[in-house]
Amino acid sequence: MARIFSGAQPTGNLHLGNYLGAIRNWVTLQDSYESVFCIVDLHAITVWQDPKALIRQTRELTAAYIAAGIDPERCVIFNQSAVTAHSELAWLLNCMTPIGWLNRMTQFKEKAGKDREKASLGLYAYPVLMAADILAYKATHVPVGEDQKQHLELTRDIAQRFNQLYEKDVLPLPEPMILGAATRVMSLRDGTKKMSKSDPSDYARINLTDDRDTIAQKLKKARTDSEPGVTYEPERRPEVANLIRIYAALDGRTTDQVVADYADAPFTTVKTRLTDLAVEKLGPIAEEMKRLMADPAEIDRILAKGADRARAIADPVVAEVRETIGL
Ligand code: ADP
Ligand code: NA
Questions:
Q1: Which of 29, 60, 314 shows the shortest CA–CA distance to 179?
Q2: Residue nearest atom 16 of ligand 1, based on CA coordinates
Q3: Is 276 helix (H, G, I), strand (E, B) or coil?
Q4: What is the residue-wise DSSP string for 160-183?
Q5: Separation CA 174–CA 149 (nearest Å)
Q6: For position 228, what pLDDT does the model report?
Q7: d(CA 272, CA 268)
Q8: What's the CATH superfamily of 202-290?
Q9: Phi-psi label, residue 326: left if phi above 0, alpha if psi -120 to 50, beta otherwise
Q10: Which residue numbers in the chain have pLDDT < 50?
């Protein structure tokens, strides 16, 4: 059976981009794929994380997966650091990944900031850990947002190189799945930047746990332009186009349909209706998250059980890789 692997970082501020670009699609996919969904805490620590916050955010992200509709009985839900196969395979793959390939990764350049020499080695090697995450499960498909496309291509390159070096088809090449009407949700403050957990401005994103007033405020302040009318022109009107895409994705319609409905309306009308729509879709998730978070021991049990199931898949794969290498 085809198997999907995907994950998100427990770095807090889970936002609409994570939901529309990733988690919401996983909910649909769990019906047709054997599904492994990870809380990638080892990725999170490539930049500084407060230990107490990390524990809380790991539980919170688990709660978000479940609240969004991922079934922990049918799917494997676990945190990455609980399964040592990830770090072991990452090291093995580090040893056969040319530095030149990593130097081409645009996300590192963005995340490392101006003083690249001070970025951690882990941040630099992040894409190899991601390759290990996927390959440890011999995942056939990887549902991600567009921002992860380059990392997925690298994963395929690493798998292919491994197979070629050892003249053996050990690691299958995974296919990216970039799904939905909002595969790249942009910042509400700047239509050229993606909506991100790490954006210093809270007004740049809508968080899954935002209440109605907060969502209303953020959308009211969301940047648009001074042109009258509602048109979908991603190049010329990126901020307006972003809000139309978000609208379409939340409402299960196309951008054309949204534009047709509001053609002559002032854009504030779109913002008001989008507020209602976001509250309608996110509100129940936030509420269910709160309910789940009231019982952290139960969340920990779900993660422990998931880790057992994850090990049962990943450990034999790492054993096969070790044996292939001669270890
Ligand atoms: P972030 O990039 O916000 O730190 P993660 O790295 O944890 O979030 O990503 C979790 C998932 O959410 C990935 O599949 C990623 O592609 C997706 N994702 C993140 N940001 C966006 C966005 N702005 N639009 C669409 N998908 C996104
Ligand atoms: Na990301």
A1: 29
A2: 145
A3: helix
A4: HHHHHHTTS--SPPPEEE--SS-S
A5: 12
A6: 87
A7: 6
A8: Tyrosyl-Transfer RNA Synthetase (1.10.240.10)
A9: left
A10: none
Closest among 162, 137, 172 to 316, alpha carbons compared: 137
Q: What strands lie across the sheet with 3-8, from one edge to the other?
A: 76-79, 34-39, 3-8, 141-143, 175-177
- ipTM of the complex, rounded to two decimals: 0.95
Token representation of residue 280: 């309608």
What secondary structure does DSSP assign to 255-272, as a single string?
Answer: HHHHHHHHTTS-HHHHHH
Q: Compute the 3-state secondary structure of the chain and give helix, strand, coil in percent, each to the nearest 5.
A: 60, 10, 35
Atom number, ligand 1, closest to the C-alpha of residue 187:
23
Question: Does residue 9 line the site of ligand 1, with CB under 6 A?
Answer: yes
Residues 3-177+296-325: name the CATH superfamily: HUPs (3.40.50.620)
How high is the pLDDT of residue 182? Answer: 77
pLDDT of residue 234: 95
pLDDT given for residue 10 in this prediction: 97
From residue 239, alpha-carbon distances to 7, 77, 185, 233, 277 in Å are 27, 35, 10, 9, 18
pLDDT at position 264, please? 84
Using a 6 Å cutoff on CB, does residue 306 contact ligand 1? Answer: no
Q: Tell the burial category of 111 from Cβ atoms under 10 Å away from its Cβ (0-12, 13-18, 19+).
A: middle
Q: Which two tokens stand for residue 309?
A: 């199931």
Does ligand 1 lie within 6 Å of residue 196's CB atom? yes
Domain with CATH 1.10.240.10 in the chain: 202-290
Per-residue confidence (pLDDT) for residue 323, from 0 to 100: 98
Domain with CATH 3.40.50.620 in the chain: 3-177+296-325
Q: To which residue do tokens 């740049």 refer?
A: 204
